[in-house]
Specification:
With 320 residues, the protein is of the alpha+beta class. It contains 6 helices and 12 strands. β10 and β11 form a beta hairpin. α3 packs across α6 and α4 runs parallel beside α6.
Length: 320
């Protein structure tokens, strides 16, 4: 396992270094018609601060570049400029870089997108979601809970405003999670949470008085939101606590994959009885000397293709 990147240990202001990804979609009711209700879809962009682990959620109307740029600009307007952005190689992410005329620089074969304000956009290699564990963990738990909740809720009871308010409530719940074990010291009884660092307030927002049951889904909109927020809180408290248990990491040193090695690709999408093999054309060592990114060359049907993959996706068959 690699050491933490420097932007994970930064002491700069919150949301200076962020990781982001998109999850969804969910069906909502946009307008009433004579035949019923016209439905559309909404996605969410989750921004995670790499240092204090706070999150910010933006709703988007489609997966195109324009909607994502609007969400990105709204995030910048709320939290200020960003120095480092990390994400996967989504087409809307790379398209946003091109649309915003962000300069592409090639430095040690790692794609870095720099704009005039000094923001660096780092893309993880394809098939390497483990390299974005900081924000993927938050998305994984949130998506699982929201999908199971909203799949049982009729789209006619969800509007854009209801979903927008629900995402704000979800953000408050996630940011109120403890970052460190509870102290037994009587002098420091409060929890350290991302919300505490963001707002400089120890107390959290209390829910409105009253109990919100399933019947409230058919009542006023604000009661609908509070019922869904309570459902998310119950699932979040139950499922997030299990992720706080310590797990063993990879401590044993393994030999690096080298240029010229013949490897077998661990591709879950190949058909039966196919064994895709590739030749390592270049290995990219990190600062600690360990190789975690590889450039591979594959020949299929007489066509040579080259692409980037993480080291975890290959098995060495024949060393060079």
């Amino acid at each position: 396992m690699a050491d933490l990147p420097s932007d994970r240990l930064s002491t700069e202001s919150p949301f200076t270094n962020v990781g982001l990804d998109v999850f969804g979609p969910w069906n909502i009711s946009t307008r009433r018609t004579r035949g019923g209700a016209a439905n559309s879809k909404r996605w969410a962009v989750l921004f995670t601060c790499l240092s204090i682990r706070a999150v910010h959620i933006e709703l988007i109307e489609s997966m195109d570049i324009s909607s994502f740029i609007n969400a990105l600009r709204h995030f910048f307007a709320v939290h200020g400029p960003v120095k480092v952005i990390r994400s996967d190689c989504g087409m809307n992410f790379k398209g946003a870089c091109k649309e915003l005329q962000i300069i592409l620089q090639d430095e040690n074969n790692i794609s870095k997108y720099l704009n005039e304000e000094g923001c660096t956009w780092l893309f993880n290699p394809p098939h390497s979601s483990h390299m974005g564990g900081v924000w993927e963990k938050m998305i994984g738990v949130s998506r699982r809970i929201l999908d199971s909740m909203l799949s049982q809720t009729s789209s006619s009871h969800l509007t854009h405003k209801v979903l927008l308010t629900l995402m704000a409530e979800v953000t408050a719940i996630i940011n109120a999670r403890p970052l460190a074990p509870i102290s037994a010291d009587a002098e420091s009884p409060f929890l350290l949470t991302p919300s505490t660092i963001l707002t400089q307030k120890v107390c959290t927002t209390s829910p409105p008085p009253g109990s919100f049951e399933n019947a409230d889904l058919y009542c006023q909109q604000w009661k609908r939101v509070q019922h869904l927020a309570n459902a998310f809180w119950e699932r979040w408290r139950r499922e997030y606590l299990s992720t706080l248990q310590s797990r063993s990491k990879w401590q044993d040193s393994q030999p690096n994959v080298k240029e010229g090695d013949l490897v077998l690709l661990r591709d879950s999408q190949v058909k039966r009885n196919q064994w895709p093999m590739a030749l390592v054309t270049m290995a990219h060592p990190d600062d600690d000397g360990k190789v975690r990114k590889l450039e591979l060359k594959v020949t299929k049907g007489g066509t040579i293709k080259a692409f980037l993959r993480p080291e975890t996706e290959v098995v060495v068959l024949m060393p060079s």
